[in-house]
Amino acid sequence: MTPNPTLPDELRLIEEFGEPLKPTGAHPPADLRHRVMHAVRRDRSRGRLLPRTATWPAGARLAWRIGAPAAVAATIAAGLIAGNTANVAGNAPAPPTAEPGTPTPTGTPAPAGASGVLQLAAQHAEATPTADARGNQFVYVESMEVRSKTTKDGKTRVEGPVRVRTWLSVDGTRDGLVTDDTGARTKLSGCRDGLRAETIDRPDTTPKVPCTPEPAYQHTEVPTDPEKLLAYLYDPRDTRDHYAWILEPGSRKGHYVKISEHQRASMKRGKRLWQTHSPAVHGAASRAAARIPGVELRRGVTDAAGRAGVAVTRTDAGVREELVFDPRTYAFLGHNSIVAEFRVTGPEHTGQPPGVVDSIRIQAKGSGKPGDVVQKWAILRTAIVDRAGQRP
Amino acid sequence: MNAVSTETHADTDAAIIQASLGDPDRFAVIYDRYAATLYRYAHQRVGAESADDVVAEAFLAAFRGRGQYDLSRPDARPWLFGILTRKLASHHRKEKARYRAMARAAPDGVLDGPADEVATRVIADAARRPLAAALAGLSRGDRDVLLLVAWGQLSYDEVAAALKIPPGTVGSRLNRARRKVREALGGVDPFGTSEEER
Question: How many domains does the structure of chain A reveal?
């Protein structure tokens, strides 16, 4: 900013003195708005401010900028999502083929590596009947979430599990809804006439931006053929570099770290498949997932609801994304983001990087040790209902 | 510099605040209009660690106090800055310690940016430490007025409205603060030739 020529010299000096004290971005942290409006809405009952969120799943803080729905923001860095989301709470049907041995919840002679698990998950999804759903209905998703948060004094603690209920528009044009145990309520702007609100949580006061409807149960854009799905995930039209912004513990300097194309494909799948719950798409996703380099198998994993599972993981830019499956049925249980060993090497950017910022991750003081939970979510139940807010 | 950057319709702040009495969600418009401005100011005064807490507290206090808002004032900026100033008061000691630390700190070694901007900053850099010391030494009331004008970009009348003090008091506090800043600069001539030009 150029100094204000009308101010007397002392004031001008003070103004200049204040320049480097300004925040680097033009906007306050995105979660600040949520804190304030959450407190405002609850004011009559309690009126307490939410604790400041310092450790978010990648992307959540950017949600308002990139216009992703809340449910997606929570999963935007989700790695590979596969398997079917119906019936996972209990009596899920066994996979139709490929008996993997005699699995027990912990330490089993599981199928050969990650690709074996993904194959079984695909078969499980493909064996799941598709529900009848009309375009004007909603997919109800009941889930549990665990999040790490930072309190006022800078200490990090893991919060939850919190029960979250999400309503996603079957054809993608209706307004969805996210609610949770703490009373939070976020409207998801549907894509009507090619337009929706730019931000997730202020649909009434932000400009509309162009969009393509994201059907939660019909698949128009997302291919169900694994080959085509893979091509769709590695979108060749997007030639820009993508970055994650990482603030390491004990450091005041953020780093922009380039995200690999494989991780980007994984992230895109996570985003699309949280929004698309049809078994066919989930089956194709598992088959496509096996073709992305860098996936690994991990046993003895626990989901947000405390269920033991076997995970297919991918690690990139300091976070291990875990897709958790039931070790017996290979039903998809949920997704974990866990801090992984990471060192910033190479050039550090302090300004806007020459590309797209996909995710933002702030490791708070006292957190960020490998193994710490960034976020977990687990699906308990899905169903088709008539209205957003209606329980099955 | 204008506080309103994302306005999408013509409603005045007063109209929005009145509507928010019946529909609390309408208060989001006030947030969207002023959050960036208030956050920037708070960030300058208390740093990133406390800025979002202070701003969140200020908005919640504003929401609770919206019934007392003077609806004859279409612009809510001075009102919000007044609330923010009261919330900043509880960080008074921390803020002062921060300026003291800046007064002791070595000047930045490397400066980035367009050449003319760097030149301006190199000049101002000579004065950074004494300026920080001066801010640390001001009384709370004087500092509030000085920074509302220099950083918050409020007019004298707006400062008077924000702090609920007479305009004459704004003037006298500002003069006192400016005098102390000038004294703190002592031998430093931050503008090089500016003395000769006078």
Answer: 1
- Residue ranges making up the domain that contains A288: 53-97+114-385
Q: Shortest Cα distance from B5 to chain A (angstroms)?
A: 11
Domain that holds residue B84: 11-90
| 8 Å CB contact between B122 and B108 | no
List, in sequence order, every residue forming a beta bridge with A311; answer none if it has no partner.
A298, A324
Most B-contacting residue of A1, A2, A14, A50 (CB-CB within 10 A), to test interface: A14
Amino acid occupying residue A374: V
Q: Residues with Cβ < 8 Å from A378, sequence gap 6 or more? A: A143, A144, A145, A161, A303, A304, A305, A307, A324, A333, A334, A335
Give the ranges where B47-190 is alpha helix by DSSP (H): 48-64, 77-89, 92-104, 115-137, 140-150, 156-163, 167-185
ipTM over 0.85: no
A56 min Cα distance to partner chain B (Å): 16
Position A3 in a domain: no
For an interface test with B, give the residue of A9, A36, A155, A201 to mutate (most B CBs within 10 A).
A36
Handedness of CA B59, B63, B67, B71 (dihedral sign): positive
Over the stretch A162-211, which tens digit does the pLDDT of each residue have? 898 999 999 889 988 888 887 777 777 888 888 876 554 445 555 566 77
Q: Does residue A71 fall inside a structural domain?
A: yes
Count of Cβ atoms closer than 10 Å to residue A387 Cβ: 12
Cα A273 versus chain centre, distance: 10
